[in-house]
Amino acid sequence: MTILVINAGSSSHKAALFSPDWGSRPQWRSHLDWSREPGWVHLAAQTADGRSHRDRLQTQDPTLALRALIETLWQGPAAVVEGPTAIAAVGHRVVHGGTAYQHSVVITPDVKATIRDLCPLAPAHNPANLHGIEVLETLLSGIPQVAVFDTAFHSHLPRAAATYAGPYDWLLQGIRRYGFHGISHQYVAQRAADLLQKPLSTLNLVTCHLGNGCSLAAIRGGVSVDTTMGFTPLEGLMMGSRSGSVDPGIVLHLLRQGNLTATDLDRVLNQGSGLRGISGLSNDLRTIIDQAEAGHDRAQLALEMFIHSLRRHLGAMLASLDGLDAVVFTAGIGENSPLIWQAACEPWQWLGLRLDPTQLERCDRDRDIAAPDSAVRVFVIHTQEEWAIAQACQTALANRPAVPAPAAEP
């Protein structure tokens, strides 16, 4: 089955095509970015056999840009299929599924309505996800589409972990911890089990998705039992431009001062905080590390705060487990920063966790970086969210109810 995977974001879109001949390796991959240059969209597509297509489109219309991107599948130097009918299904990453969806589902008008209703809980993501669905419905008419929810993996959190300590009415209103990055956490947990050659159902893991957005998950027996993100992706770890958890009294204080509106606070907490807000330089940890090593005081503080936040929340995840078989690092920072691997693991030597000095370098393959005698394994795993979405798409289509045959005419 040839499956097109769409990850539609607020400032960029990613897409990948998976076909039986290529397995987990995308036959075609593409990217749209309209954050780099006002009024212009940068388009790039590349095939597994090395052909590429790049363009720069003068448009602010995301519909036109997404259409242009998808059409590179069958037009131009990066074409890999003869036309839209070669695609059997489309899988969409949808950030927020609320309490409605605990598994991936075939998209129907009711599913779209629920995704729309959940837009206030993920205003930077769900509207873009829904737009991607609607564009593909038009462009690939009649081809089944599947929603794969980032919150689904965390939908079985214990009540004590999912419930906020406000009034009980909050829970009745749907205000609870949902958790995010679930597609990534689920994929790397299964991959860690494969590397350990043990059933996932027997393992206690802490998975660390560290990128511009960061979250940890405590996974017991293949089930997420705690996670750092909550009602929104703002809670938890210090991130690239998000504050992570802060004292709610700070927000009340700023509102009472009358200097900031709710919209201003949203922008500050989501776009002007974290590494960017503290350093005044960048949301990119690579830049922060370089500047910290060069003696930039605010960059040094940002790096120290990021490490402190990571250690603190990692400890919180340990408290939700019955032991610890492995720690997993993934995503942009997690896959590429030996400094962060070492800093995160250093406090846990009393658990018998030790890293292998010969493994502390960047590498394109998944691997164990723990010392041979370490009591806890430590994996660096390259997350493959797009492949996980393609697999979930296949499962959802295989499990959908059969359409009854029309009754024979008398």
Description:
- The protein is an alpha/beta fold.
- It has two domains: 3-154, ATPase, nucleotide binding domain (Nucleotidyltransferase, domain 5), CATH 3.30.420; 197-386, ATPase, nucleotide binding domain (Nucleotidyltransferase, domain 5), CATH 3.30.420.
- 34% of the residues lie in helices and 18% in strands.
- It has helices at residues 62-71, 109-117, 126-139, 159-162, 168-172, 182-196, 248-257, 262-271, 274-279, 285-293, 297-318, 331-334, 338-345, 385-399; strands spanning 3-8, 12-18, 28-33, 41-47, 52-57, 89-94, 105-106, 145-149, 204-210, 214-220, 223-227, 326-330, 367-368, 377-380.
- An eight-stranded mixed beta sheet has the order 5-4-3-2-1-6-8-7, with helices on both faces. The protein has a six-stranded mixed beta sheet with strand order 11-10-9-12-14-13, with helices on both faces.
- A hairpin with a 4-residue loop joins strand 4 (41-47) and strand 5 (52-57).
- It is globular.
Question: Short summary of the structure?
Answer:
This protein has 410 residues and is α/β, with parallel strands linked by helices. The chain contains 14 helices and 14 strands.
Describe the SSE topology.
Blueprint lengths: L2 E6 L3 E7 L9 E6 L7 E7 L4 E6 L4 H10 L17 E6 L10 E2 L2 H9 L8 H14 L5 E5 L9 H4 L5 H5 L9 H15 L7 E7 L3 E7 L2 E5 L20 H10 L4 H10 L2 H6 L5 H9 L3 H22 L7 E5 H4 L3 H8 L21 E2 L8 E4 L4 H15 L11
Parallel strand pairs: 1-6, 6-8, 9-12, 12-14
Antiparallel strand pairs: 1-2, 2-3, 3-4, 4-5, 7-8, 9-10, 10-11, 13-14
Helix pairs in contact: 10-11, 11-13
